[in-house]
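Q: Predict the assembly, please.
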Amino acid sequence: TMRANSAATPGAEISAVPQNTARTAAPAQAPSDATYVGQDTCLSCHDEAMGAYKDSPHHVAADPRSPAATQGCESCHGPGSKHVEDPTGVKPMLFSAMTAEQADATCTTCHSKGEHALWDGSQHEARGVACITCHSVHTPMSEAGSLKKKTQTDICASCHRDKVSKVDRSGHMPVREGKMECSTCHNIHGTTNVKLLRAGDSVADSCVSCHADKRGPFLWEHAPGRDGCVTCHDPHGSSNDRMLVSKPPALCQQCHIATRHPSTIYDAGLVATSARVFARSCVTCHSTIHGSNHPAGNMFVR
Amino acid sequence: QETTTSNTSSGWVDFGVRGSSLTGDASRYERYRDLGDGLFLETFRWKAQRDGWFLNAGADHVARRDQRYTVGVARPGTFKGWAQWDQIPMLLSRTTRTPYSSTVPGEFRLDDAIQAQLQALPASQRSAAVQALVNGSPLFDLKSQRHSAAGKFEFMPTTNSSLKVSVKQDYREGAQPFGAGFGHSQLVEFAAPIDHKLTNFEASAELERGPALFRAGYMGSWFTNEVTSVIFDNPLRATDIAGAPSSGRLGLPVSSTQLGVNGMVSVKLPQKSRLTAYATLSTLKDDSGMVLPHTSNTAVLAAAGPLDRTSLNGEAKISGLNLNFTSRPSKLLSLNARMRYYDYDNRIPSFTVPIRVSYDANVSVRNPPLHTAGYGVTRLNLDADVRFTPKGPAALTLGYGRYSDERTYRIFEETVDNVMRVKLDTISTGLFTVRAVYEHAQRRGEGFDVNALIHANEQPGMRHYDVANRDRDRFTVMASFMPVTNWALNLSSAIGRDDYLNSEFGLRDNNHDVYTIGFDGSPSETVGLGLSYSYEDYRSLSRSRQANPGVQFFDPSRNWATDANDKAHSVVANAEFKRIAEKVDLALSYDYNRTRATYEYITGAVPDRTLPLEAVVPTTLPTPTALPPVKSELSRGTVDATYHINNRIALAVSYWYDKYDVQDFTLDSQAQQTLTAGNNMLLYYTYAPYTAHTTWGRVIVRW
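A: Predicted assembly structure:
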């Protein structure tokens, strides 16, 4: 359909791609008594479909797992003999006419291992997000991954705009500089960790897979850090130093109001004069805040 | 097939010359990148087929600090290999200065004569002398750099099996701002060394046999820190005496190793069902990590006595188990159920500290002694979701989750979060897509330990918000409409309310409202347009009591609150015009992000947000002076015009406009004046605005 085609044009919104017009369009299943006619027959009418497909892994016949090594176009679109006999009356399996489940079933016929092994039951699959919501075999826009937009960030922003917006905050990971992508931390196809995190089995595990200096072991440990780095940091970005979720001392005073200086109101008068709040505030003194192996490190000042 | 027998080669390269005009903070403009003037080779890509082998190579930002090189080789169906070298700079400041010198990594020294001179000054003259010392010190770049070498290899002996190995080594070197004190009113900052090496290795074997998928894996992670302590001179003291050290010392992370194994079995079952089980077990240990001496002050070290032990002996056993069951027995019904178990068993032996050493200055006896307590957690998460697709394009999902966390050494022994959720997904009409989720959660703690608060001099009414009793309501909705072919209108909203209903002190509520509106369109095959606007509003209230020990501690008239509000506006716009003129493409983009955070102090009662359990009395605290708002504004615009001479060669001009503005009452240039207060010797690491214009003249060649 025209709308389906629009998803491949720059700026088009992937979330608007129809995935199931089964009740109004052609049936998703190819006729059961159809037989294979071969790729050349398909291309005699649909040569435009070769597009990027001819440069994709799907078209590598040397790979026995690829469509090209088996039935070519008909590996995914079903046997086409009936369509050849009646081009307008009988349609092959069109992904734009499939439900998410049908489209996924076709793709996971092959893509069922490795990165995709945990697709079933994953957050995206459970919400009816299909492979073809993000990927296009015939008209990809990205350099890698056959995505429908130029970058992963663009694709993910289609639904997760609030997360992607934070990448533009002053404190951010090097995503907009092209050094990281959403998939650096997340495997959106499904993982054993929470939040589709790629590494480890907890939020903290994921973070320390790169920031190993925070993993300990420590004599004195800041327990919320081990519980989850996101207690204090927003990994998608923030306007605060070190991607903190709030600005110190306000952040620290959400948990620490012990007698003496933790419970002090650091108003504008004190900010101008108190060493306990200017510059990087609490962490200027409590610099080993993630943990310490100094015998006097119980307050993380050594 | 032609593709398997022909030898082909293709690629492209983007190179040229670049220049920037910049006013303000160059370090922030180039925080994670190198945009230096002069010749550049921005992108190189090459791929080829040779006798059934597929080869590719890529390079980005060649010869720059953020350069990246990638090579790949594949024998389809048999072997894949990939290797990468990547560099990520992190330039924090170009205006930092310090009088410290460091010839030995981790040692920050001052000339003894300077220390003696400052020590001899009357107290009233020391502050000015310290600031003069800092201001007379040379500027230096405060920065670090990550060098990553990575490789992945996959061997496929059969179509249903594969062996994978991946290895990545990160070497990070440089410095980061670190602070320490010689007391509450005398701080120093230094550029703490970063000299880390992290090697992560993973190997796995995967086999698909019939309806079952098997996977077994091994992981190893080796972290090496070459500098595990920092010693820093006291500018005001030349020699050690009891009560005033000539230097201080603090600990940095020790080297550690984590080794583990994991396995997974996933089985297809009848009724479009699948059962997946995954288990993992690993051990984290320090690599002969040492406990630092009690103090660096030689005058009090003997009084401090021996350490409980000198070696860290840190160890943690980490285990996990996942069971996941999915079933699609009919078109009307689907089921997802998951059990996730995670255990972080911290086995570091307790360490006893019978004395207190404050800021490497004084030694006093602790009574009772202090004991370290290794933090551990055991999590058991259960989720079940049932999805109905009764008629038409809508699917309704009802779900329940129970998340149980048992922790050691927190104020609650256990917390249980019960979550109910409803999801609505309509994705099928072609005209519109709607996705909505409503979630209500109740977290409650068991085994409250008030002594944990009392020992820390905290109010008994304090509840740490990551474990506190909490009611949570969250609603998100996203809708896309395509009223006209090739045009889409997108709306989304996320609303969240967190109520910490028993937290007399600490975070009491935390709310957010996020709204986005945008459209995308393609009026023709050659034009693409997009525009979106987002508004975000985050609000939180936390409660405190300004008190010294004694009567004040119990005085509710000294209660106060921080009402924090963070608002953000974001605009993302882009337009692409292919062949806007003969042989000319034009692309425009503009991003704008503005945040404004306020921290309002409220003394006394907080209207509409006072808990029943809170004693409300008139305040006796002086009226606080309002803090100025914290503002951050980033705008970026780009223009790319490309003239295609022919199919192989194009000339392009790009222009980037990048502007950052900031107001931050503790870190901006105005706040910098306050950094000179007292006897503090800081780095002058600040937030500063910049405006940058960068122009690129580029040549793009394809073959």
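Chain A touches chain B through 125 residues (CB under 8 Å). DSSP finds 14 helices and two strands in chain A.
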